[in-house]
Design goal:
183 residues; mainly alpha; two-stranded antiparallel sheet; 8 helices
Amino acid sequence: MSCLLRVIGITASSAGLLNPALGRMQQFDVGRRAFLGAAVVMPMAAVQHTRAADIVLTPVMPTPARLLTIGEYLVDIREARRALEQLQPLIELDTNAGKEAVRIGLRKTPVNGIRKACSKVLVQLDGSSLQAAKQAEYDAIKGSIAVLDDGCRPTSTQSSDGLVAELQRLEGLLDQFANGFAS
């Protein structure tokens, strides 16, 4: 009992259990409530010395099953990336018909699957350390697709060189999004 009291920070003399005349602890009966109270206080005493600065967070990686699922969606992203290469000659034509063909190409399979595949990857990354970085990459991909689509509108004054640069940027963003996973 005395070691239990020492753990929770109470000495035998401060608890009134030590008989000074005898120099030893008195016999006493520990009730159920006292014992359970000490059992609750002990873990709290151990926790109170832990500071938030002492806690080291380790990166959380997706489970192997989630990585397998992510791999399936990365195949779709890579197919869309290869399909984007076919749009560059259409942009270089610098005609309204070529730009309209680019806009149609952005809405056809497999390019139109970019958002779905990236979203599904992000769902699988929920709670992992990669989620924030991949979310930022996905936001950049969406922005690049929007710039490319808006630049190919008939009313746009964006040059074909600027559109080709944006297309190459989108391809790089897709490559970057697909990297970083064990495949």
